[in-house]
Structures are given as C-alpha cells and as structure tokens.
C-alpha cells in the first residue's frame, strides 16, 4: 500500500483531503446512530474505496488530492517545504483497514460496527485536518524506525 514511486507532496494537500474525509466520516457516524444504517453503510463503502484509491495509487492521485492540486493550491502561496508522500499514503492504508473492518463486520450482522469504525477513522482524519497530526504517518515512522518497513 504505497506509491509506486517516491514523490513529494504539498503537506496542505493531505490536510485538505483529511478535512473532507472527516466531514464524510462524521456523516456516517450520525447516519449510523440516527437510524439510517443502510445509508451509513454505503457511504462507508464509498469511503473505504477512496481510502483504497489513496493507499494504492498514492495521495497525489487520490480524487481529493487532485481537487486540491487543481483548485486550491493555485490560489495559495508555494509551500515552505514538501513532505514525503509515503507516510500519508500509508495512512490511507490504515484508513482502509479501519473502514473495511466496519464494512465487513456489518456484512456479518454487526451494523453498529459502521459508526464505530467511522468514529475511529474520524478521530484520525480530524487530528490531521485540524492540527496537522497524522496518526497513520506516525505509525509509518514507528514501523520504519523498527525496521519493519524499509526506509528506501
């Protein structure tokens, strides 16, 4: 679950994407707890697919990343620095695992798994969007330091 090639990205792009994702995950939580379990389930399926897109194609080719690049970034000053795309791409994989767990558990008859998985993913997306703290990126860095993931 990583970019096929190492790239650098504007760090504001993943934060922008996390903001959209956080809002959509919050909608899943509200729908799931508010009696619209079917709508919550299908929105979580869509979000899991978007996480898969980001995890396998990379954050630079994710639909929200492309939207940022085409519409938002031209209106901003250049970033002070770029960041390695591998940690946020790995974070997309973590989001995929969490949301897919909710989808699969719901298919096995545990509908409450949908808002619970969405709430867990929401916390991570909100932290990234609001504070620039990427939990999945931190997991990536810990795994690199532990030599579970190669640095190159």
From TrEMBL:
It comes from Agromyces atrinae. The keyword Transmembrane applies. The keyword Transcription does not apply. Pfam families: DUF4395. This is DUF4395 domain-containing protein. The chain crosses the membrane at residues 20-44, 50-68, 89-110, 116-143. It comes from the Bacteria. Residues 9-145 form the DUF4395 domain. Keywords: Membrane, Transmembrane, Transmembrane helix. InterPro entries: DUF4395 (IPR025508).
